[in-house]
Design brief:
The chain is built from 3 helices and no strands. With 133 residues, the protein is an all-alpha fold.
C-alpha cells in the first residue's frame, strides 16, 4: 500500500489535472458562446441600421412624413397573430385610408413609442442572455 505522502501527492496531481481539463473545457465553451453571441448581435445591429435607413427614406418622402412607421421584421412576426385576430373580429370590413391631413404625433405619443422601443430592446437583450447561458 502506498504511503500517505504518495497518496497526497497523487491526489494533488489528479486535482491539478482535472482542474486544468475543466478550465480548458469551460474556456472553449465560453469562447464558442461568445462567438455566437457576437454574430447574433452583429445581425441584429445590421437589421436595426437597415430599418433606420428605410425609416429615414420614408421620412424624406414628401406627404408621408406623419404616417405611421412600418413594423420592423422582428416585431412584425410577433405582432402578426394579434393583427390576424383583430381582423377576424372586425369581419370583412375594408381598412380605412389614412387622412392626408393627419397631424404629427404628440410628445406623449412619441414618449410612448420610445418606451415601446426600450421594452423591445430589453426583450431582445433577455433573449440574447438566455441563448448564451
Amino acid at each position: 500500500m502506498p504511503s500517505t505522502r504518495m497518496l497526497l501527492l497523487a491526489t494533488a496531481s489528479r486535482l491539478r489535472s482535472r482542474i486544468r481539463s475543466g478550465l480548458a473545457d469551460a474556456t472553449a465553451q465560453v469562447v464558442t458562446e461568445a462567438e455566437l453571441a457576437a454574430q447574433h448581435v452583429q445581425q441584429e445591429w445590421q437589421l436595426f441600421w437597415q430599418e433606420v435607413q428605410l425609416e429615414a427614406e420614408r421620412l424624406e418622402r414628401p406627404g408621408e412624413e406623419a404616417s405611421e412607421p412600418e413594423p420592423s421584421p422582428s416585431t412584425a412576426s410577433r405582432q402578426a397573430p394579434a393583427a390576424d385576430q383583430q381582423q377576424d373580429s372586425e369581419g370583412d370590413s375594408q381598412p380605412q385610408p389614412e387622412s392626408a391631413t393627419r397631424k404629427r404625433a404628440s410628445p406623449a405619443q412619441v414618449q410612448e413609442s420610445i418606451d415601446q422601443l426600450r421594452a423591445e430592446v430589453a426583450g431582445l437583450n433577455q433573449r440574447l442572455e438566455q441563448n448564451t447561458l
